[in-house]
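Re: [help] complex structure
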Amino acid sequence: MSMTLTHGAVEALVKGLPVYNPVLQLLNMRKLNSPSGTSRYRLMMSDGQRSFTSFLLDTQLNHLAEENLLVPNCVCKLTKTILETLKDGRRVLVVTGIEILQKAEETGGKIGNPTPYKADDETSQSMDSGTSVSEVSSSAAVPGPSDTNNSTPSPRGYGSGFGATASPMKTSPMMTSPMRASPMKASPMKASPMKTSPMKTSPMKTSPMKTGSVISIAKLNPYQTNWTIKARVTNKSNVRSWSNSKGEGKLFSFEIVDESGEIRLTAFNKEVDRFFTLLEQGKVYYISKATVKIANKQFNRLKNDYEITLHAHSSIVLCDDSQGVPTLHFDFVPIAELENKEKDTILDIIGVCKSAEDVSKITTKTSREVSKRAISLIDTTETVVTVTLWGEEAEKFNCTREPVVAIKGARLSDFGGRSLSTLFSSTVMVNPDIPEAFRLRAWYDQEGYAVESQSLTYTGSASSASRINWKTLSDVKNEQMGQDEKAEYFSCVATVVYTRKENCLYQACPSADCNKKVIEQPDGMYRCDKCNRQFPNFKYRLILSANLADFGDNQWVTCFQETAEVLLGHSADTLGHLRDTDETAFEEVFQKANFTTHIFKNRVKLETYNDESRVKVTVMEIQPLDHREYSRTLLRNIHKLASST
Amino acid sequence: MAGIIDVPKPRINCSMLSQHINRPVCFVGRVEKVHPTGKTFTLLDGEGKVATVELNEPLEEELSGVVEVIGMVSNKGAIMATTYNIMREDKGIPFDLELYNEALKVVHDFPQHYPFEVASSG
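Output below.
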């Protein structure tokens, strides 16, 4: 008595359509061997109408096959399957949940007359396209190597087992001619390395691998166990040790790139000792026999669904022929687009370093001392962003000559709006040898250096902020600033040439928000008219009249409490006290302020006092002048003026 | 010695040495090597090129960092120093030699804007 199979389930499953607990019959089962020891069972399932050969039993269910619970002709219910599409388009259904409904003996043979389900035409085409290697091979290999392949029952080359029988369009029952199908995908190198792989002929000759077939990183997947990749190390981390409740260990990771893409590899414990010193950033290696698994996106920000873990059988050999292997794979985000990205995104960035702060040392939460340096990068989007470098990179960074800086794997933060920080795993390249860098250099030298840029990172310091209205003191008079009754703001670089010490201090109301001048009463109390109260005391406040000068002109300005304290370097209270106690020291304060140069942010406005209108300048903010930054700005302006004449 | 003090001494780097032979100059560079005798040492300018400085008397102190040398350029392109002073870098701001070099180039490219002649009439 045959059970009812779920007609149409096979087609639906392969197409990725939802099917609830389909009942299928197992027609055939094949054990695939892999050098690492784990077996994998490949199943041919039928729904009575169609059959499909690319079902893979999840290794956790291997016991079902080994204990003869899964036997050809038994009927089962698939409770959970995962459809995987490999990079070359082939589809695999991984069976992660299965129930045996009827034993093989009870079914009495194959139910129905199922025809093999061929995957889409697209699948077959994608097999032909892809790397040039397989393109060449599909013509060469189809007629030719079938003989050689047929005689080798155990698949050695890449695409063992799975690859060999992967093409449903070629053969239906997989038992009959697995090998004949293989030339489509499997080991084109193996067949005729000299003919089929013009790019890879030399490595094949020199390759110490017996399995010899190099595949591209893009083709790596967990179902292929026998592969070799040839790639360049783009990034190697330091060895990190950990110690937690489960124990301790050490690891290091590195990223590699080839023409097809990039992937991250990690080595633990013993493998760290084996491979850490062997691997060098920038060199090309053959890597084989390692575990490919789904990438842990928490630590891995590469564009690859998979990552590799090295194990005891892994092999890494230095390759002399690095022809065809690209150096570094970047995916730069224009700085202006950083605003649209989410914070904590890991991305690549390139820009010209306009300025850099000096390196500073900070102490981390774990009481470690670490160096850090903030640099500003600008790119053709005319936007600036601040990037923080750490450790040795911060210490040896030199921003003179405004180098092009490319960073791979920086983390975007919302600190100060938008800013970037390098990570343990980031790669920083100064003036890299890539076309993007040359383009940036050319743009910057011709126009970029003069651009009024917008900074995404608000730092508060005048040197990196944008939208500053820079003027010289002669501009104030020449442009008749502030005359229109409306206050105008400007910034300038100027030197203090005079500070008036007379009447710079006044007695103010001691209440928190009131700064009104208090009148001393005959009884010694101080009266504030605004608060309408009397106080036994007062607080000193500053109103400082000063004269600023630059190369072109001078200007009288007024500095109130905060700015006056910055200029004089003392608080109003201290000065008040000094005035009453030590006249000489008091005068010295004003002397010392003379001939100091700062960046002044000022407000200029027409003020009327007793029928007299005068343009008055008040200092809103004083910032220290970074002479180097200022020099660079001046040089830029000179070059700009020189080239425009 | 007196002659060189009152005379304008253009600031130059290594590329300009050949144009100032037998003339007093002011050269700023970073100390590269000091000869064991202490009578000569080499300086690196902002472009990384090397200039040789020769002294009348051997050095009496350790020379390192950025130094400003005033002297005459010899026929062979070395600087016969009359005096030197060491630029202090311990006050927090390091001397940016590359930036200095950029400024030097501007001064030499636009002599019309940087007239350094001393007014002869007092």
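The longest strand of chain A covers residues 306-318.
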